[in-house]
Design brief:
This protein is an alpha/beta fold. It has six helices and 15 strands. Strands 1, 2, 3, 4, 5, 6 and 7 form a seven-stranded parallel beta sheet that branches. The protein has a six-stranded antiparallel β-barrel with strand order 8-11-14-13-12-15. Helix 4 links the parallel strand 5 and strand 6.
């Protein structure tokens, strides 16, 4: 990767040398970190303004600190960008407008505009907001997740193979705790993926998985390395590929069944899961 990379985790003194050594752009959100970055060699950096996320950055209403920041920036020629982050752009346009107003107040106090001003995440990129910016920061939408009014195309699939088949009778039980009891005869397909691979245990007895061109229910608890599907009388063979999301079952639909968000399903995928990349 030869294009500039901005690291949005706030800079602290302990990470400054590694950030600079890797030619990364740090995000700075306090005066002490700014002073250390400039005095230790400098380099391009971005400032974060906290307008309501309360996670990191210079607080928009801290007038005194922002005035000090204004004077410090005069001695920081490598100031490349400034931004804020929306907390509810996917569901509340008014909150985004309020944050933008706060952001503009902070920019006015800084007294100058760097080359890059940015605030739009995936959801905000679809909103008609009054303040112009130089770039956007689409996130989950690039990975196939829904963001506000934006409907994505599938980008990622999580798949595994069927490794066992068995026919169960009424009264038989499935997985740990014997919580799932079979009411009618069915075929159970065991798929070689589990919570050790990033499948949330909250999908136990609730998830849907694509197998053989249909969505079939996940039955019983998700185990560390395997999960079980009830395929009834459908034709399934050892080695068939099951798709947990990215096909008939979308990323967002599976996340809803797991009572979580699409981001978590993607970031939970364990390193041991083989990645295959395709250029389409």
């Amino acid at each position: 990767i030869r294009r500039p990379v901005v690291v949005f985790t706030p800079l602290i003194a302990a990470t400054a040398a590694g950030t600079r050594g890797s030619s990364l752009r740090p995000v700075i959100g306090d005066l002490a970190s700014l002073a250390h970055w400039v005095s230790s060699g400098g380099g391009p950096f971005h400032l974060e303004i906290d307008t309501g996320m309360s996670r990191s950055g210079f607080l928009w209403r801290d007038t005194e600190t922002l005035r000090q920041l204004r004077s410090r920036l005069r001695a920081a020629p490598d100031w490349e960008g400034v931004f804020t982050h929306f907390h509810s752009a996917d569901c509340n346009r008014d909150s985004a407008l309020e944050q933008l107003e706060r952001f503009q107040r902070a920019l006015d106090l800084l007294g100058q505009r760097p080359p890059m001003v940015h605030w739009a995440n995936s959801a905000a990129a679809a909103l008609d907001l009054p303040l112009g910016a130089d770039l956007a920061r689409p996130g989950i939408f690039l990975y196939g997740g829904r963001a506000g009014r934006l409907e994505p195309e599938p980008v990622a699939k999580l798949q595994a193979r069927v490794v066992a088949l068995r026919r169960l009778r009424p009264g038989d039980t499935v997985s740990y705790g014997a919580e799932a009891e079979i009411a009618a005869g069915t075929t159970i397909a065991t798929v070689a993926i589990g919570y050790g691979d990033g499948v949330p245990r909250s999908l136990s007895g609730k998830g849907l998985v694509e197998l053989g061109g249909r969505s079939v229910p996940l039955i019983g608890r998700v185990t560390m390395d395997m999960l079980m599907l009830s395929v009834e009388d459908r034709a399934v063979a050892l080695g068939d590929v099951a798709t947990l999301f990215g096909g008939l079952v979308s990323l967002d639909a599976q996340a809803a069944l797991a009572k979580t968000v699409s981001y978590e399903l993607l970031t939970a995928i364990a390193p041991r899961v083989v990645r295959r990349y395709r250029n389409l």
